[in-house]
Design a protein that fits this description.
With 128 residues, the chain is of the alpha+beta class. Strands 1-3-2 form a three-stranded antiparallel beta sheet. The longest helix has 14 residues. The protein is elongated and about 55 Å long. The C terminus is likely disordered.
Length: 128
């Protein structure tokens, strides 16, 4: 897991409504309309939260047809364990460094290269 994936995971669980979604899905899969009713949340808002949880790998959605031919989107929890400590953060940063191109790796001493300085905008604010 790199730092971007770690941040997506932390962001996904760092919201009260998304924790409520996880709580409702803990007992088993539900289709979106039922989940929205239980949470007293609009379906568009629920889909936004489910999207964040799905991108973080915490839930999975699947479209199914009911007996009467209606398409129902079911969501369920995916098995996960969230462990955050210094080692987790260091491992994510190490993965970033391993995946970075050599010129972006830093100065060889573990320090990242500072961003290039911006050139001052000399044409702005001058009168002619």
């Amino acid at each position: 897991m790199n730092s971007e994936e770690l941040l997506a995971l932390l962001s996904a669980v760092g919201h009260a409504q998304r924790l409520r979604v996880i709580g409702e899905l803990a007992d088993g899969r539900l289709y979106v309309s039922e989940l929205a009713r239980r949470l007293e949340m609009s379906r568009p808002l629920l889909y936004m939260h489910l999207d964040r949880l799905e991108k973080a790998g915490l839930v999975a959605g699947r479209l199914e047809l009911s007996e009467d031919g209606k398409a129902l989107k079911y969501f369920e929890l995916t098995p996960f364990e969230l462990k955050l400590n210094v080692d987790t953060v260091l491992a994510a940063l190490q993965e970033d460094r391993a995946a970075a191109p050599p010129e972006a790796a830093g100065d060889g001493n573990g320090a990242a290269k500072p961003p290039a300085a911006k050139k001052p905008n000399t044409t702005r604010g001058t009168r002619t």
